Amino acid sequence: MTRVALALGSNVGDRVAHLDAAKRAIAHRIGPVVAESALYETAPIGGPEQGPYLNAVVVVETDLPPTAVLARVLDIERSRGRERGERWAPRTLDVDIVLHGEATVNEPGLTVPHPRLAERRFVVEPLLDAWPEAALPDGTRVADLLPAVADQQVVEYAAEGRPSADSVQLSAWESVVVFVTVGLVAAAMWWVLGQFL
Question: Is 120 a catalytic residue?
Fold first, then answer.
C-alpha cells in the first residue's frame, strides 16, 4: 500500500458539503483515509475575482498508481459539479495529488509531487496537520517548506454546527453521567427546599 496525500479545495456553494462528499468518495473509490487535516480558509490565488476557499488535506493508503488516482479524483470533482474552463476560476471542488509515496511523475496533465506545493501555505499547512512527517521524494521534509510561505494567510475554520479544535466533546457515557448527576443534584435541592417549606 502507498500513502497518498490529496489536497481538497472549494469556494462555490456549500463548501463544507463539497469537501465532506469528496472525503467519502475518496475513501470509497481510492482507499481508506488514514489521516485528515482540519479545514482552513484561504484567499484565492490568481484567476478572476472570487470568494475564499476552504482547503484540507486527506491522506489515504492505496494500491492505485498515480494515473489511476488522477482518473478517480477527476471523476469525483465532476460528481460535485466541477466545470473546467478558465484557469484558477471558482470551483465547487478541486482535488490535487500532492504526494504519491516516493513517486515522481511528469506526464501531460499529471505532475507529482504537485509542482506548486512549496509555494502554497494552504497546501503545506494542512499537509503537515494530517501527515507531520511527510517528505518529498528527494528527501526534503515538508515541514522545512513552511517558513518560505509563512507570510501567506491561512485561518483554521470551524463550520457552523461543527466543533472548533479546542471545543470539548463528551462521549455517550460521559453524557449519561452528566445527565444523571444533574438530575440527582436537582432532586437533592428539591428535597432540601421541601424541608424548609
Answer: no
